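Good morning,

Attaching, inline, the backbone tokens for the sequence recovery test we're adding to the shared suite. The designed sequence is right after.
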């Protein structure tokens, strides 16, 4: 009995490293594949949504309002927009796009006071079609709309200047998977060590 135990321990010790290596290898390959896929997919995965506008939704503005600015957190394409006056009449607009995430609807200063509705649709950076609308009020004597500083609009547009949330999530995922792999390898070693000791013992 006492002679067989060490033999068994050796036999196990020879078998386990392959299993541990195979599992660890598989996890590492999977982590690598995940990381590559995630980094390929993420630049196109941004869903563009409105982050700021001028006038802002619900705001009452006055003075010489000649443009409506919409700033998104990612680029927009194939933009369509309408501008509806208080009486339901659709006014002429000209759509300008100073940056890929920045729309400027050029309008004539409203002649009527009341609620105006801005409707817009576009293709998101991830290819999703988006439709949205908001209202603001115009009263000639009210303060003018605060223009969106160019730096705000352009810096929030540029995905290259700061890592996007998507990229951070991907990095966290990759680190998590690598950590799991490391833990797994450690656990396999512990188990093997424990079994070797068990086999040696009685
Ligand atoms: Cu989307």
């Amino acid at each position: 009995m006492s002679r067989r135990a060490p033999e068994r321990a050796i036999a196990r010790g020879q078998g386990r490293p392959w299993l541990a290596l195979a599992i660890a290898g598989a996890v590492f390959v999977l982590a690598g594949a995940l990381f590559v896929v995630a980094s390929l997919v993420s630049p196109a995965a941004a869903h563009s949504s409105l982050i700021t506008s001028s006038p802002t939704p619900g705001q009452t503005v006055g003075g010489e309002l000649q443009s409506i600015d919409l700033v998104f957190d990612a680029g927009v394409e194939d933009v369509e927009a309408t501008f509806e006056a208080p009486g339901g009449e659709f006014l002429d607009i000209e759509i300008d796009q100073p940056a890929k995430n920045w729309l400027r609807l050029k309008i004539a200063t409203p002649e009527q006071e009341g609620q105006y509705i801005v409707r817009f649709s576009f293709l998101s950076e991830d290819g999703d079609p988006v439709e949205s609308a908001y209202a603001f009020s115009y009263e000639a004597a009210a303060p003018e709309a605060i223009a969106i500083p160019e730096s705000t609009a352009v810096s929030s547009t540029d995905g290259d200047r700061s890592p996007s949330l998507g990229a951070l999530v991907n990095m966290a995922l990759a680190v998590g998977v690598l950590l799991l792999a490391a833990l797994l390898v450690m656990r396999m070693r512990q188990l093997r060590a424990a079994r070797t000791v068990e086999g040696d013992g009685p």
